[in-house]
């Protein structure tokens, strides 16, 4: 089956890769939605709750820094490195990801090739003026006061640069993902349950537009039946073999 995947990539002119939590669990980052996922321990805080309550903002930052103890240990695995290799070779035009861990950046994929649909957990932004805040700065202020810090420029609310429940999807990134999907002739959906919309609509869009759809995921997905190839295998070993990494 990996030979069929290899042949499909070689025969394609413009590949788009779409990644979900499954590629990062192999780097030691727990997912959110599984029976043992992070949301079983920490129920997600709705965006409106975050905005309305200083106490909820403080709780959100407390959870964030607790989860970062795990995320900080993670490094890109062979799956990430294979994708980075294909981007470097010009085979993959864009990496659309549902993940917020930043591991595609660390693997060497250029920033302009990455489309983060759910944001990025490695820094924070002011919801008022958009100023970027580094997490070290936010952590120091939080630990000193126990309160969620305000923006140093405008005094606005500072939030991890991720998309929360109830928060609007980023229009620019959604538009970029739409354009990239329509421009590909092969769409690789990797490590995603393909259940979370609107993000999960991109594989369907690619298929309807005439691209081949290949799904690589340990578990079955609702879109397996429309895919041209489905691999229910460990992601890192499969991509490592196809990309011929050491």
Automatic annotation (TrEMBL):
- The positions annotated for binding Zn(2+) are 126, 129, 151, 154
Q: Which EC numbers characterise this protein's activity in its record? A: 2.3.1.286
Instruction: Fetch the CDD domains from UniProt.
Output: SIR2-fam
**UniProt keyword annotations, A-Z:** Metal-binding, NAD, Transferase, Zinc
Q: What class of enzyme is it?
A: transferase
Extract the PANTHER family matched here. NAD-DEPENDENT PROTEIN DEACYLASE, NAD-DEPENDENT PROTEIN DEACYLASE SIRTUIN-5, MITOCHONDRIAL-RELATED
Q: Which residues form the Deacetylase sirtuin-type domain?
A: 1-246
Question: What is the species of this protein?
Answer: Tepidicaulis marinus
Checking InterPro entries in the record gives: DHS-like_NAD/FAD-binding_dom, NAD-dep_sirtuin_deacylases, Sirtuin, Ssirtuin_cat_dom
Q: Which GO terms describe its molecular function?
A: histone deacetylase activity, NAD-dependent; metal ion binding; NAD+ binding
Name of the protein in question? protein acetyllysine N-acetyltransferase
Q: Where is the active site?
A: 118
Q: PROSITE patterns this protein is in?
A: SIRTUIN
């Amino acid at each position: 089956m990996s030979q069929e995947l290899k042949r499909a990539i070689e025969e394609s002119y413009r590949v788009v890769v779409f990644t979900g939590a499954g590629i990062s669990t192999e780097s030691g980052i727990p997912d959110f939605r599984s029976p043992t996922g992070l949301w079983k321990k920490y129920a997600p805080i709705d965006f409106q709750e975050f905005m309305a309550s200083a106490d909820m903002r403080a709780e959100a930052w407390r959870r964030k820094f607790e989860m970062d103890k795990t995320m900080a240990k993670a490094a890109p695995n062979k799956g990430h490195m294979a994708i980075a290799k294909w981007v470097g070779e010009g085979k993959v035009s864009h990496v659309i990801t549902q993940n917020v861990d930043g591991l595609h950046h660390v693997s060497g994929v250029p920033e302009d090739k990455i489309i983060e649909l759910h944001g990025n957990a490695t820094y924070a932004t002011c919801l008022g003026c958009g100023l970027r805040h580094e997490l070290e700065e936010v952590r120091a202020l939080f630990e000193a006061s126990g309160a969620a810090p305000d923006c140093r420029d405008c005094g606005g609310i500072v939030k991890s640069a991720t998309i929360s429940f109830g928060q609007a999807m980023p229009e620019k990134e959604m538009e970029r993902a739409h354009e990239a999907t329509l421009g590909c002739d092969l769409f690789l959906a990797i490590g995603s349950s393909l259940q979370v919309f609107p993000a999960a609509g991109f594989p369907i869009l690619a298929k309807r537009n005439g691209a081949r759809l290949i799904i690589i995921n340990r578990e079955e997905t609702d879109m397996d039946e429309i895919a041209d190839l489905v691999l229910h295998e460990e992601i890192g070993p499969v991509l490592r073999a196809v990309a011929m990494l050491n």
